[in-house]
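Researcher: Go.
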Amino acid sequence: MEEKQSASFMEKVAEFIVDKRKAFFLVFIVAVLYSVSSISKVNINNDITTYLPDDTETKKGLTIMEEEFITYGSAQVMVTNITYEQALKLQEKIEVIEGISSAEFDDSEEHYKESKALYSVSFTDLVDSEVSQHAMQQLKELIADYDCYISSEVGKDDAAELQADMSVILVLAVIVIVIVLLFTSQTYMEVLVFLVVFGVAALLNMGTNYWFGTISFITNAIAVVLQLALAIDYAIIMCHRYMEERETKAAREATIIALSKAIPEISSSCLTTISGLIALMLMQLKIGFDMGIVLTK
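Model: Structure:
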């Protein structure tokens, strides 16, 4: 009797959703527009050290270092296929760049070997200052015509590099998923539906991050890929339920029955996933909380 009442309740919920689908479409359209406009307002924190607990030795050490010492920018610049005389002239050009205090270079093996010159460049300002950034840009332009390599924290954007890498991973993941769906789906329209569902879900999650004010650049970069891995199977469960019911029922009835059966299955699976994400939020390193709360949402 209880199972019948439970099933009847789920069918009523599913019937309400199906019959009021236009209202649901409107709500989601408004939510997507809000999310798209909010994505640019999300503050991204590029300093991973801010997520360290205050009582850890690493955090204490970094705090003392920042208070007691000034970390000027530096760079190791290697130029290949260059004579020693040319390297000396290039050293003089590097040292006259505004924002660079010195470019250490001599004829020792540490700085010149097999037509390769290594310069130890020191900047006059901090690593992330505009002066150092501008000087690094001028340095790159100066040695652009040489075979060269620069190793430096000046001008390095870890967040942008991670975002670019994760964008490639996301594209590859989508391609693999589409290929798999093409072989496992009964109609090509299923694949389009899955892509629309995931695209809308991704936009909603990215836009509503604005509610938290600030998220880490790591969370911002990987959340979409993790969301794809964690949640796309819910759409597949719903779609397969519908296709099974559609064989013997009209479209409306098939959708209602499929939805009433899929809701408990998806909810139980979703709660298991959320439990794991909440556990992630208990990490001492607060990046776990940051990732957990975004993905739980």
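Model: The chain has a mean pLDDT of 87.
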